[in-house]
Structure of Transcriptional regulator:
Amino acid sequence: MREIPQISEAEYEVMKIVWEYEPISTPEVVEKVMEIIDWKPNTIQTMLTRLVKKKALQTRKDGRVFVYTSLVQQHEYVEQKSKLFLKQFFNGTLNSMVLNFIENDQLSKEDINELKAILSEREMKEGGE
């Protein structure tokens, strides 16, 4: 897996907008972020600049505006963060995390049934190969 830049929680909010609407201009990013988070335009522009410096985004000038596209795919970022979360809190094993949720009554009957269905479907796919 390639190196994914470290993205702060605030930068992640901006990335989610870029991923959803790319290619997207600075004014469009500002508008869409401000619809969900009460940030000033300068704050959002600072996040965009940081993300370009970190090589999470690339930018090109289109007339008088900058247009952003991602250099990091959302699924890659989520995969990396998920693995880091498991490693940090559950010794890197998914079983430990699920067991923690079960033991602390964090999973409803519906959650458990959904997990069973997912596992059963996965088992059927692997058995059919």
